[in-house]
Amino acid sequence: MLNILILNGPNLNLLGTRQPEVYGTTTLDDIEVMCTKKAAGLGVTVTCRQSNHEGELIDWIHAARGVFDGIIINAGAYTHTSIAIMDAISSVEIPTLELHLSDIHAREEFRHVSYIGKVAFDAIMGHGAAGYPMAIERMVQRLAS
Fold it and tell me: Could you give the number of structural domains in the chain?
């Protein structure tokens, strides 16, 4: 059975209340339930984790080697700043998909740069919470090919 790690970065623990006009009203707990249901329907497992700490995200990426078949990551603001997360993803050589609730290319100019995108095989953005099940489906397609 395929095993997928879903990582969420800083401030995503505030989903549902943080800038609902940008990120919607769905909570991270709601998203994790959606992900678990989608994964079960596809016959895969998912493990969801969130941290506001860059080093913890990096530790989880390192620990994923040999345990997870794919990583889906919404690195939040670290997308635009963390060469360290980019290097961690590149180092573990696990297929990684970049995910964002909003379309980062339609937002402020500083958000247009994605270090994660330089090492991810694909990106899903701008679909709100619905992007998470889409990302799981896309990851399963990638791992099955």
Answer: 1
